[in-house]
Write a structure and sequence with these properties.
This protein has about 250 residues and is α/β, with parallel strands linked by helices. The protein is built from 6 helices and 15 strands.
Length: about 250
């Protein structure tokens, strides 16, 4: 059974880091309700939920994906590029240590999990403001003993690699071609592009043969359904205001 690590939404969410969005008011209670629906969806799709330590003072703490990169053999604990987020990693490391051997990204490297996309035996890392070349190198060193390759890929116009592209098993990439060249990513047989009017629609999360899509992107969802991909929508609009998406909200093992 897959195990999903999640963390509660902080009351400080409106103080989150933002890079490509203008700040606007966030309804924390609504964000918490949307997060609860997300966790319920993970449960319904077969995940066992483990709640990480609540970090009320960490505005971005709910976005746990950025604190680790997971492979079946090892968990690589990151060093976020946003200094305000570095206090989030210790609790994640403690929780993951009971399940997997750990490796640690260390200064001057920076790496955030939202920049890392696994496709088969390859890990691609977005060359963003949050993940530097030293971070890519340290991730590569941690994963090489297990036969994985790690490669940096250019992106622009968005926060993280998985803002621009996600992998939908068994063979599909969902891509915003304005932010990344899908030809740089090998191992997928099919490429679906987001609807042009939904530039943030590329972030999806696939579990148990179902692909979760934000309700904000109905045209992109229709493109996936037209390709035979089974989808389910979730309302996460308040979390989008914090420059977040579906993969950000969990770390999944298995």
């Amino acid at each position: 059974m897959p195990q999903a690590f999640v963390r509660a939404v902080s009351t400080q969410l409106a103080r989150c880091e933002l890079s490509f969005l203008e700040r606007e008011p966030i309804d924390v209670e609504r964000a918490r309700a949307q997060h609860a629906a997300y966790v319920s969806a993970l449960t319904e799709l077969g995940c066992r939920i483990e709640w990480l330590e609540a970090l009320e003072a960490n505005a971005d703490g709910v976005f746990v994906e950025d604190t680790a990169v997971l492979a079946p053999e090892v968990a690589v604990i990151t060093r976020p590029g946003a200094a305000s987020r570095r206090g989030e990693v210790e609790s994640v490391a403690r929780a993951l240590a009971a399940r997997l051997p750990l490796a640690q990204v260390r200064a001057p490297a920076t790496l955030e999990g939202g920049d890392v996309l696994k496709v088969g035996r390859a890990f691609y890392v977005g060359a963003s403001a949050r993940s530097n070349a030293a971070g890519v190198a340290q991730l590569g060193a941690a994963l090489a003993p297990f036969g994985y390759t790690v490669e940096s890929v250019p992106l622009h116009g968005c926060l993280h690699l998985k803002s621009a592209v996600t992998f939908i098993p068994p063979e599909t990439l969902l891509v915003n071609p304005d932010w990344i060249d899908a030809a740089r990513l090998r191992g997928a047989q099919q490429v679906v592009t987001v609807a042009p009017e939904e530039p943030y629609g590329a972030n999806t999360l696939s579990l148990g043969g179902v692909t979760l899509v934000s309700a904000a992107y109905p045209r992109t969802r229709a493109r996936l359904e037209a390709e035979g991909i089974t989808t389910r929508t979730l309302e996460v609009g308040e979390l989008h205001k914090a420059e977040a998406a579906l993969t950000c909200l969990s770390l999944i093992i298995g």
